[in-house]
Amino acid sequence: NEVEPFRAAVHEAVDRLVGHWRALADERLPVTRPGRAPGATVAALPALPPEQGEPLDRILQDTWDTVVPGLVHWQHPAFLAYYPTGNSPASVLAELVTAGLGVQGMMWTTGPAATELEQVVTDWLAQALGLPGHFLHTSGNGGGVIQDSASSAVLVAVVAALHRASRGRWRDLGTEGRYRLYRTDQANSCVAKAARVAGLGESTVVPTLPGTARMDPRALRERLAADRAAGGVPAIVVATVGTTGTCAVDPLADIGRICREEGVWLHVDAAYAGPAALCPEFRWLNDGVGAADSYAVNAHKWMRTGTPCNVMWTSDRRSLTEAMSVSPPYLRNEASDTGAVVDYRDWQIPLGRPMRALKLWYVMRAHGLQGLREAIRHDVRMAALLAELVAAEAGFHLVTHRLGLVVFRLDTDPRTREVARSLAGDPALLLSSSTVDGRPVLRAALGSPLLTEATVHRVWRTIRRHAAPGGPTASE
Ligand code: PLP
Fold this sequence. Notes:
Largest sheet: 7 strands, mixed
Bound molecules: pyridoxal-5'-phosphate
Shape: globular
Low-confidence stretches: none
């Protein structure tokens, strides 16, 4: 009987998780364990799997004894590195129910309600973000799909763009070294990776406008013309709303106009900043998105949703599904043959997929759009507070501050590096370091619902302490 022990173990797991969340909220746990040597978890685990099954409660106990102490706590209020990974009780509950139902919704026929729920929630979210109607399933030509990541969304967009640019020829002949992808050096690393994986090789790097990290539309036009003159075929431009480095926003309207004129696919990567458009005051982020052929946000970054949950929309689902569809006899079915249903296997790289929509549905319902907006506004307020503290401090320089991201440096580059190194050894908080215009910077992305003004002040005192003469040994 597997079921009764499961019931007890789930209760215990929930109690443990709630205890863990409380410990994070009270900052009774560190964010990291900087002294932990690589291999510590390997050393703590047996080299071979158990021959006999073990009780679930013992496995849970070992999770907390052996695994949890070796984790970086992304849900900690003082986790300020990279961009945040969302979560909420509704999201966790949905993951449990999704796993328990165990559906594999690769096609409508293998999960009719799973597919239709995904159509509905992606239409919901498109409308909530103010995206154009041609991205909705109800438009007939467009629609949304839940991918695992922004990386997958870019790759899928590249394949659809290749299909359209080559009028289907690439399916037989491959990329023939002809097709080009355009991005700035600020685009996330997943864009260059997608170009490589799709067989496009190195992408064309479009310069940014002087003094900004935003794509220069005039330079884009020049690059497109130069590539065409050299026999290349511009296939796709990837623009970013909220770059990873500094949360810069590419000028979508100008880029979109050029892409339309040139017949080039425009994909917008709004992985982090996209959800901010739930708030009317941040709708401007998407100005010009009407000309995009595809657009993607990570609900798992800034929408209280656990990873993975990327939502991607296209206004040209025919190019997407024609590019991706392979139909051996064992996948053929009457519903697909009618063309009246959505088969999500043709909207993604893998064949199989969990019922992805339940998580987004639970999150949107449990928080409501108001709750999701409030969460974003909370983080923006916390970031504004930190930015104010940085800007007011002698010896510190605010490099950029947008939405939940604060980027700063110290007086000199060696000082910035020194403070970054010192902070990296402090388990009480985690920032990331990067470079802007070739100079080292520190990057704090504020996105935890557990973050309070008191934590921001505490984080700031810690940063100052690491920057003070004598370093972090000086007491707070
Ligand atoms: N795009 C941007 C702008 C990002 O900031 C990130 C990650 O931080 C990504 C894409 C990659 O996201 P994913 O891990 O979902 O592939």
